Protein backbone atom coordinates (compact mmCIF):
# COMPACT_ATOMS: atom_id res chain seq x y z
CA UNK A 1 0.00 0.00 0.00
CA UNK A 2 1.50 3.42 -0.91
CA UNK A 3 2.43 5.73 2.01
CA UNK A 4 0.12 8.71 2.37
CA UNK A 5 2.79 10.81 4.06
CA UNK A 6 6.48 11.32 3.21
CA UNK A 7 9.02 9.09 4.92
CA UNK A 8 11.38 10.83 7.32
CA UNK A 9 14.22 10.44 9.79
CA UNK A 10 13.86 12.12 13.17
CA UNK A 11 16.64 13.57 15.32
CA UNK A 12 15.86 13.67 19.04
CA UNK A 13 18.22 15.96 20.96
CA UNK A 14 18.33 14.33 24.42
CA UNK A 15 21.63 15.54 25.80
CA UNK A 16 20.45 18.40 28.01
CA UNK A 17 21.06 18.45 31.76
CA UNK A 18 17.46 19.48 32.48
CA UNK A 19 18.48 21.78 35.32
CA UNK A 20 15.15 23.65 35.34
CA UNK A 21 13.15 20.61 36.44
CA UNK A 22 15.39 20.12 39.44
CA UNK A 23 17.12 17.05 40.86
CA UNK A 24 19.98 15.15 39.24
CA UNK A 25 17.90 13.32 36.70
CA UNK A 26 17.80 15.09 33.30
CA UNK A 27 14.16 15.70 32.38
CA UNK A 28 14.24 13.32 29.38
CA UNK A 29 14.84 10.43 31.82
CA UNK A 30 12.15 11.31 34.39
CA UNK A 31 9.65 8.47 34.86
CA UNK A 32 6.40 8.92 32.95
CA UNK A 33 3.83 6.12 33.34
CA UNK A 34 6.68 3.85 34.48
CA UNK A 35 9.03 4.55 31.54
CA UNK A 36 11.52 7.38 30.91
CA UNK A 37 10.24 10.43 29.00
CA UNK A 38 12.69 9.55 26.18
CA UNK A 39 11.11 6.07 25.83
CA UNK A 40 7.78 7.72 24.98
CA UNK A 41 9.36 10.31 22.64
CA UNK A 42 11.16 7.58 20.66
CA UNK A 43 7.95 5.57 20.24
CA UNK A 44 5.91 8.58 19.11
CA UNK A 45 7.98 8.32 15.89
CA UNK A 46 9.32 4.77 15.63
CA UNK A 47 5.82 3.27 15.54
CA UNK A 48 5.00 5.22 12.36
CA UNK A 49 5.67 3.34 9.14
CA UNK A 50 6.98 6.56 7.53
CA UNK A 51 9.84 6.71 10.06
CA UNK A 52 13.05 5.26 8.58
CA UNK A 53 15.48 6.27 11.36
CA UNK A 54 15.45 7.65 14.91
CA UNK A 55 18.70 9.40 15.85
CA UNK A 56 19.11 10.18 19.55
CA UNK A 57 21.83 12.60 20.71
CA UNK A 58 22.87 11.59 24.22
CA UNK A 59 25.34 12.60 26.85
CA UNK A 60 27.81 9.63 26.91
CA UNK A 61 27.23 9.02 30.63
CA UNK A 62 23.54 8.36 29.88
CA UNK A 63 24.19 6.23 26.79
CA UNK A 64 23.20 2.93 28.47
CA UNK A 65 19.89 4.37 29.74
CA UNK A 66 19.15 5.90 26.33
CA UNK A 67 19.85 2.57 24.63
CA UNK A 68 17.42 0.85 27.00
CA UNK A 69 14.80 3.40 25.89
CA UNK A 70 15.30 2.32 22.27
CA UNK A 71 15.52 -1.40 22.96
CA UNK A 72 13.73 -3.57 20.39
CA UNK A 73 13.49 -0.75 17.82
CA UNK A 74 15.43 -1.39 14.65
CA UNK A 75 15.67 2.18 13.29
CA UNK A 76 17.78 3.47 16.22
CA UNK A 77 21.05 5.43 15.90
CA UNK A 78 22.86 7.03 18.86
CA UNK A 79 25.27 9.96 18.64
CA UNK A 80 27.06 12.01 21.28
CA UNK A 81 25.38 15.23 22.41
CA UNK A 82 27.10 18.62 22.18
CA UNK A 83 27.46 21.57 24.54
CA UNK A 84 24.33 23.29 23.13
CA UNK A 85 21.14 21.81 21.68
CA UNK A 86 22.23 22.96 18.22
CA UNK A 87 25.54 21.06 18.52
CA UNK A 88 23.66 17.91 19.55
CA UNK A 89 21.51 18.17 16.41
CA UNK A 90 24.58 18.88 14.22
CA UNK A 91 26.04 15.60 15.53
CA UNK A 92 22.75 13.90 14.74
CA UNK A 93 22.83 15.17 11.15
CA UNK A 94 26.36 13.83 10.77
CA UNK A 95 25.39 10.48 12.26
CA UNK A 96 22.40 9.82 9.95
CA UNK A 97 22.64 6.38 8.31
CA UNK A 98 19.73 7.00 5.92
CA UNK A 99 19.05 9.82 3.47
CA UNK A 100 15.30 10.49 3.36
CA UNK A 101 14.08 13.76 1.82
CA UNK A 102 12.57 14.92 5.11
CA UNK A 103 14.32 15.35 8.46
CA UNK A 104 12.32 16.10 11.60
CA UNK A 105 13.92 17.48 14.75
CA UNK A 106 12.02 16.91 17.98
CA UNK A 107 12.88 17.74 21.58
CA UNK A 108 13.16 14.51 23.57
CA UNK A 109 11.41 16.40 26.36
CA UNK A 110 8.11 16.53 24.36
CA UNK A 111 6.79 12.97 24.81
CA UNK A 112 3.12 13.71 24.01
CA UNK A 113 3.45 14.67 20.34
CA UNK A 114 0.64 13.11 18.30
CA UNK A 115 0.92 11.07 15.11
CA UNK A 116 -1.37 13.62 13.45
CA UNK A 117 1.01 16.52 14.19
CA UNK A 118 4.08 14.55 13.01
CA UNK A 119 2.31 13.81 9.72
CA UNK A 120 1.17 17.41 9.25
CA UNK A 121 4.71 18.72 9.79
CA UNK A 122 6.30 16.11 7.48
CA UNK A 123 3.76 16.74 4.74
CA UNK A 124 4.03 20.55 4.98
CA UNK A 125 7.84 20.36 5.03
CA UNK A 126 7.71 18.25 1.86
CA UNK A 127 5.51 20.89 0.21
CA UNK A 128 7.28 24.06 1.42
CA UNK A 129 10.80 22.95 2.41
CA UNK A 130 10.40 23.90 6.06
CA UNK A 131 7.49 23.63 8.51
CA UNK A 132 7.03 23.97 12.26
CA UNK A 133 4.07 23.67 14.63
CA UNK A 134 3.19 26.89 16.42
CA UNK A 135 0.49 28.17 18.75
CA UNK A 136 -1.13 31.58 19.18
CA UNK A 137 -0.47 33.35 22.49
CA UNK A 138 -3.55 33.77 24.72
CA UNK A 139 -1.99 36.39 27.03
CA UNK A 140 -1.01 39.98 26.21
CA UNK A 141 2.77 40.17 25.73
CA UNK A 142 4.99 42.96 27.12
CA UNK A 143 8.58 43.92 26.37
CA UNK A 144 10.38 45.05 29.54
CA UNK A 145 13.64 46.76 30.39
CA UNK A 146 16.30 45.54 32.86
CA UNK A 147 14.43 47.25 35.75
CA UNK A 148 11.21 45.37 35.04
CA UNK A 149 9.42 48.40 33.59
CA UNK A 150 7.27 47.89 30.50
CA UNK A 151 8.75 49.30 27.32
CA UNK A 152 6.11 48.11 24.85
CA UNK A 153 2.98 46.03 24.38
CA UNK A 154 3.52 43.70 21.44
CA UNK A 155 0.51 42.99 19.19
CA UNK A 156 -0.01 39.33 20.03
CA UNK A 157 -1.82 38.44 16.81
CA UNK A 158 1.62 38.72 15.15
CA UNK A 159 3.19 36.25 17.57
CA UNK A 160 3.34 32.46 17.88
CA UNK A 161 5.16 30.11 20.23
CA UNK A 162 7.20 27.48 18.37
CA UNK A 163 7.00 23.76 19.10
CA UNK A 164 8.69 20.68 17.68
CA UNK A 165 8.79 18.49 15.61
CA UNK A 166 10.24 20.93 13.12
CA UNK A 167 10.50 19.47 9.63
CA UNK A 168 12.82 20.30 6.73
CA UNK A 169 13.96 19.01 3.39
CA UNK A 170 17.26 17.38 4.26
CA UNK A 171 19.39 19.50 1.91
CA UNK A 172 17.86 22.71 3.29
CA UNK A 173 18.55 21.73 6.91
CA UNK A 174 22.13 20.73 6.04
CA UNK A 175 22.61 24.10 4.29
CA UNK A 176 21.17 25.94 7.32
CA UNK A 177 23.53 24.14 9.71
CA UNK A 178 26.55 24.81 7.45
CA UNK A 179 25.56 28.50 7.23
CA UNK A 180 25.09 28.73 11.02
CA UNK A 181 28.50 27.16 11.67
CA UNK A 182 30.18 29.52 9.21
CA UNK A 183 28.55 32.65 10.68
CA UNK A 184 28.58 31.58 14.37
CA UNK A 185 24.78 31.66 14.60
CA UNK A 186 23.38 29.91 17.67
CA UNK A 187 19.60 29.43 17.60
CA UNK A 188 17.20 28.01 20.17
CA UNK A 189 15.38 26.12 17.42
CA UNK A 190 16.13 24.80 13.95
CA UNK A 191 13.66 27.05 12.21
CA UNK A 192 15.73 30.10 13.19
CA UNK A 193 18.73 28.65 11.35
CA UNK A 194 16.64 28.16 8.20
CA UNK A 195 15.18 31.66 8.63
CA UNK A 196 18.78 32.99 8.78
CA UNK A 197 19.28 31.53 5.29
CA UNK A 198 16.36 33.64 4.09
CA UNK A 199 14.21 30.57 3.35
CA UNK A 200 10.51 30.82 4.33
CA UNK A 201 9.19 28.50 7.05
CA UNK A 202 5.53 27.47 7.02
CA UNK A 203 3.50 27.23 10.22
CA UNK A 204 1.13 24.38 11.04
CA UNK A 205 -1.26 24.54 14.00
CA UNK A 206 0.55 23.22 17.09
CA UNK A 207 -1.05 21.22 19.90
CA UNK A 208 -1.44 22.46 23.49
CA UNK A 209 -0.95 18.82 24.58
CA UNK A 210 2.49 18.75 22.90
CA UNK A 211 4.04 20.24 26.04
CA UNK A 212 7.77 20.39 26.77
CA UNK A 213 8.68 18.94 30.15
CA UNK A 214 10.15 21.99 31.85
CA UNK A 215 8.75 22.09 35.40
CA UNK A 216 8.10 19.13 37.78
CA UNK A 217 4.30 19.44 37.42
CA UNK A 218 4.66 18.95 33.63
CA UNK A 219 5.34 15.23 34.22
CA UNK A 220 1.90 14.79 35.84
CA UNK A 221 0.24 16.76 33.00
CA UNK A 222 2.01 14.55 30.42
CA UNK A 223 0.86 11.41 32.26
CA UNK A 224 -2.74 12.59 32.10
CA UNK A 225 -2.47 13.35 28.37
CA UNK A 226 -0.92 9.96 27.50
CA UNK A 227 -3.26 7.99 29.76
CA UNK A 228 -6.30 9.69 28.25
CA UNK A 229 -5.04 9.02 24.71
CA UNK A 230 -4.45 5.35 25.57
CA UNK A 231 -7.95 5.14 27.04
CA UNK A 232 -9.52 6.55 23.86
CA UNK A 233 -7.52 4.27 21.50
O1 LIG B 1 16.72 22.87 27.58
P1 LIG B 1 15.72 22.76 26.49
O2 LIG B 1 14.34 22.44 27.00
O3 LIG B 1 15.71 23.87 25.52
O4 LIG B 1 16.17 21.46 25.68
C1 LIG B 1 15.45 21.02 24.54
C2 LIG B 1 15.97 19.65 24.13
O5 LIG B 1 17.33 19.75 23.71
C3 LIG B 1 15.93 18.63 25.27
O6 LIG B 1 15.38 17.41 24.79
C4 LIG B 1 17.40 18.49 25.69
O7 LIG B 1 17.75 17.20 26.16
C5 LIG B 1 18.12 18.77 24.35
N1 LIG B 1 19.51 19.28 24.51
C6 LIG B 1 20.56 18.58 23.90
N2 LIG B 1 21.86 19.03 24.05
C7 LIG B 1 22.13 20.11 24.81
C8 LIG B 1 21.06 20.82 25.43
C9 LIG B 1 19.75 20.39 25.26
O8 LIG B 1 20.33 17.58 23.22
N3 LIG B 1 23.40 20.49 24.94
Please tell me the overall pLDDT. 95
Compute the CA-based radius of gyration.
Answer: 18 Å
- CATH C-level class is Alpha Beta
Instruction: State the major sheet.
Output: 8 strands, mixed
SS field, number of helical segments:
7
Broad shape: globular
Low-confidence residue ranges? none
CATH topology: Spore Coat Polysaccharide Biosynthesis Protein SpsA, Chain A
Range of strand content: 15-25%
State the distance separating the first and last CA atoms. 23 Å
Q: How does the helix and strand content classify structurally?
A: alpha/beta
Q: Into how many domains do the coordinates divide?
A: 1
Estimate the helix proportion, in percent: 25-40%
Instruction: Please give the CATH architecture.
Output: Alpha-Beta Complex
Structure description:
- The protein is of the alpha/beta class and 233 residues long.
- The chain has one domain (8-224): Spore Coat Polysaccharide Biosynthesis Protein SpsA, Chain A.
- Helices cover 34% and strands 24% of the residues.
- The protein starts with 7 loop residues before the first strand and ends with a helix.
Amino acid sequence: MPLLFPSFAVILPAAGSGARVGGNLPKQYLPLLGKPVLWHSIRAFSQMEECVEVVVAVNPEWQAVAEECGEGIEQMTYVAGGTERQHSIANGLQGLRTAPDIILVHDAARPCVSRWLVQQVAQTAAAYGAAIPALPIPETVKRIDSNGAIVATIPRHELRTAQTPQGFRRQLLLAAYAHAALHNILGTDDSSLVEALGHPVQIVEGEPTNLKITYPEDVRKAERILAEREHRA
